[in-house]
Amino acid sequence: MSDSFVSDDPSGPVVSDDPSGPVVSDDIEIAERALADYDLSPDSSLRLLNLSENATYAVQDGETGARSILRVHRKGYHRPHEIESELDWLEALRGSGDVTVPTVVPARDGRRVVTIDQEGTARHVVHFEMVPGTEPDEKTLTVEDFRTLGRITAALHDHSTTWIRPPGFGRFSWDWEHSLGDRPRWGRWQDAVGVGAAESEVLGRAVRLLQRRLDDYGTGPEVFGLVHADLRLANLLVDGENITVIDFDDCGFGWYFYDFGTAVSFFEDDPSVPEWQDAWATGYRSRRPLPDADAAMLPSFVLLRRMLLLAWMGSHSHSRESQAMSITYAKGSCELAERYLTFDGRRLA
Questions:
Q1: Of 93, 95, 113, 174, which is least surrounded by CB within 10 A?
Q2: pLDDT tens digits, 267-287
Q3: Which domains does the chain have, with CATH numbers?
Q4: Exposed, middle or buried by CB within 10 Å (0-12, 13-18, 19+), for 118?
């Protein structure tokens, strides 16, 4: 991702020259216009941090130097009430005190979600306080990192299972139909880069076994509910003893232990995953029970996440993860699928 920025108006917001194309240009325009709705100086600057489902910008107030985060939502990904529902959960989590999460900065008129009209299309923007800390280095992960993540996941599940959601709460579902079924939210894994006839054959067999295991597991309230759905170490910001969980944009209704599958996102085939799984389960059990029947499903949720990400890379070629990994990701997915089939879905190594 480019770190250089240009602006046609030296007194106005800074505009990225990132090479990702018109998606970035469109989102910069929305971000510029949204800034006017907040208590920020007119010469505040924008710097693109990440382009994935959404475009995320660092904001620096031109007068005070204060920094914050602006999230420009992708067109059509979430409806306004779904974004508000995410923010309701964040507010409830902050009130519980068990999990530290980002704080929303309301617009001048109190709105949490600012909507900008872009040639007849509603674009939605949310402003957050800057969170101190850095994410764990994925090149030097330890079992302690996964114990910590397991403990945090259990705290989120505790809250999810006891929180009385407000009327009108709505988030999308990560059930089979919307994951790998007939209406896949992130596209078809069969269309991903590197998936040809041979890859489709082995991946297809693994997916059919995965579907059978998930069908047997079911979607009762004890196993299926409100989850973060992207609860990986990259979405933790560590500042000394303080850990903040960020990026609830994909939160929705899914299998609780899909959250472990997301914990090993993009390196599901790493030989250390079984060890990390044990550490994660230990951390989880330090806060909340993890019955053997649920623990036995963890390899299935690793494969579910892998297949979702394979599809996601095919439909998100602009993302940094896709640009870095998509060529080899199908090959690694096939190797993981072969191991899943070898052990009948009960383990990966």
A1: 95
A2: 999 999 999 999 999 999 999
A3: 5-129 (3.30.200.20), 138-342 (3.90.1200.10)
A4: middle
